[in-house]
Write a structure and sequence with these properties.
471 residues, alpha/beta, 7% strand
């Protein structure tokens, strides 16, 4: 052993010896490979927001067997996590931030590859870091409000490949949002409009991300600029991104055939159907936050016209193929929630910012672009009574978001941002648990304003005494 140590000291220091079976990132290929890590695009634990939207209800037979985190999230409880348990979402996103920081701080300094390659990889890491922080701040920071964001507690901003997970302090919500904006703005010029796989960040994806962040900050003109730029990029590339036309997809020879035990062969069940993905990321609905025992509210189902082909994703049967109580429906054709950037999401976000900035015709154009691909053209028009009233139009767009994304976790972030919007801030939210007859109410949960912000796990706070928790 002494001879071995002496021979090692003559050649390389111990820290320079690469462990067998492992590779230290040193080439463009290595750093590029880091951005392919599955944690960037596949979340196997689910997300709290998947069970917290007000489009959901529960039914008393199966819901008690749902994971404990599902039950706590649905009830909007103060503490989701036991004292010895961390949040899987935090764990995954902090790992992603670590990888991104390593790439951001190192890749420009390697000798391998071209400058354009190195800048592109760094830009992808910046965009992914921004997306990770955006996902976390929309859970653990208060909804963005310009008048208080500078003092509202946010998250620690970590810009180095830091191994320690202790000793951190919380930056403000404003500081976190400014970091997200900065990362995306620096990234966009160096990103390509063409990517080999849709789990990698394109320029149009980053511009769409930036537009979404501005929307959540209430900066609608800035959001519109970014969405317009992203759509312009999509139009001038050979991108395969396009809406599925449900009028064709559900035909006997359509792409959503065959119907299986868990519904049609659609993007919610098949992660290879990527036409609508601008940036493909998913969260599985059988993890910590599953849809076991969850159904749609009757108000949600009433939003659909009978001809709306999105109704094909619903069933009056439970996952164990026993019948649900009369009048209740679950979204059975949904194994994966799409948590990246989808074309339908960006269409509806642009429709919203157009409506909010006075472009009614543009908002209607976007709405009908989506709706003509979801139902027969004859039923896709936005009613004239809606287009004549700006508030009704805005409500119609928000309802279209529910029709399109019910059960996929999109409603919870919308509820959060609308809670500080004077047009919607007075709304009260509740969750109902229906009895076996489908009409009686077994339990009612009402969302407290402070629970628009999740509390941090005690395990995180135990190692970071300078971090205060949310109320």
């Amino acid at each position: 052993m002494l001879m071995l140590l002496l021979s090692m000291s003559c050649k390389k220091s111990f820290l320079e010896i690469v462990p067998k079976g492992q590779v230290l990132a040193s080439t463009v290929k290595d750093y590029d490979g880091l951005m392919n890590h599955t944690s960037f695009y596949a979340n196997y634990y689910g997300l709290p927001g998947l069970v917290m939207g007000d489009e959901l209800a529960a039914e008393a037979v199966q819901f008690p067997s749902a994971p404990l985190l599902t039950q706590r999230g649905f009830a909007w409880m103060d503490q989701l996590y036991d004292a010895t348990v961390s949040s899987a979402q935090l764990d995954v996103e902090l790992k992603n931030i670590y990888i991104c920081n390593k790439v951001i701080n190192e890749v420009l300094h390697i000798a391998d590859g071209t400058e354009a390659q190195r800048k592109n990889i760094r830009a992808e890491a910046l965009a992914n870091r921004a997306w990770s922080y955006f996902g976390l701040i929309t859970c653990y920071g208060k909804p963005y409000l310009a008048s208080s964001a500078a003092t509202d507690p946010g998250l620690p901003i970590i810009l180095t490949a830091e191994i320690s997970n202790t000793g951190f302090k919380r930056n403000s919500v404003s500081e976190v949002y400014q970091q997200i904006l900065s990362d995306l703005k620096v990234a966009i010029p160096d990103l390509s409009t063409q990517v080999e796989v849709k789990t990698r960040v394109s320029r149009q994806a980053a511009m769409g991300m930036l537009g979404k962040v501005y929307l959540f900050m209430g900066q609608y003109e800035e959001a519109k600029i970014q969405f317009d730029a992203a759509f312009a990029d999509l139009a001038t590339t050979s991108s395969t991104t396009s809406l599925y036309d449900y009028n064709e997809a559900f035909l006997p020879t359509g792409v959503f055939q065959p119907f299986g035990r868990f519904g049609p062969n659609n993007p919610g069940n098949n992660t290879q159907l990527l036409n609508e993905a601008i940036l493909h990321k998913t969260a599985i609905l059988s993890g910590d936050f599953s849809n076991t025992g969850l159904v749609m509210t009757k108000e949600t189902m009433d939003l659909y016209k009978p001809s709306d082909l999105r109704l094909n994703f619903y069933s009056n049967m439970r996952s164990n193929f026993t019948p649900l109580p009369p009048g209740l429906y679950g979204k059975y054709a949904l194994t994966y929630a799409h948590t990246g950037l989808e074309l339908a999401d960006m269409i509806l976000m642009r429709a919203e910012v157009r409506a909010r900035t006075g472009n009614t015709a543009g908002a209607v154009q976007d709405l009908e672009w989506l709706r003509k691909n979801r139902m027969p053209s004859a039923d896709a028009s936005v009613p004239s009574t809606v287009t004549a009233d700006p508030l009704k139009l805005l409500n119609f767009i928000l309802e279209e978001r529910i029709r399109e994304f019910a059960g996929e976790g999109y409603r919870w972030p919308d509820m959060r941002r609308l809670s500080v919007d004077p047009l919607f801030s007075s709304k009260t939210y509740r969750h109902l648990v229906f009895g076996e007859d489908g009409t009686s109410i077994k339990n009612t949960y009402t969302l407290k304003p402070e629970r628009f912000t999740l509390r941090l796990p005690q395990l995180i706070l135990a190692g970071n005494p300078d971090m205060i928790n949310n109320p």
